[in-house]
Amino acid sequence: MAKKKQQDENLAEDVELQAEQEQPKEKKTKSAKNSEAEKLTQELADTNDQLLRLAAEYDNFRKRSAKEKEELYTRIRADVVAEFLGVIDNFERAQAAPDAALEDYKKGMDMIFTQFRDILAKLGVAAFGEAGETFDPKLHNAVMHIEDESLPENSIAQVFSKGYKIGEQLVRPATVQAAN
Questions:
Q1: Which of these, 116, 133, 156, 158, is most buried using a 10 Å CB contact count?
Q2: pTM of the model
């Protein structure tokens, strides 16, 4: 019996020893888990802060771009209007001279018209739509149709108003009478 009692005591000591050894592991594990949780929480906070800063930066960029676009649009309009102010000045001069001879008046109007065309050319505006050209429904608006054997098929017989485009962008289609 003494032997069994000794075994029980040894077993109890082993259990106590094992419990003591496990306690620091649990403490270490809990502390490691807490430290890892704190680390992940900090990383999440940092990432959230970065995302908020990025969103704010994008919002500022969007607002700045919209403002720059509006300023550019205003500046371009001002530049275009400035080009036409000379034409307006010449019209005012012509109007201020009511005693001018008809021939002088006509010559002045021709000069103003030439000035106006030069400004349009300088701005990259090209006129199109001449009689005899091939009719293109993308560029021409046919308001009338005529059967005429002397004109080539699918051509423009008469132009009521010219079309205009800037580069490849259509500003206004030409209003025409199509033949055949």
A1: 156
A2: 0.62
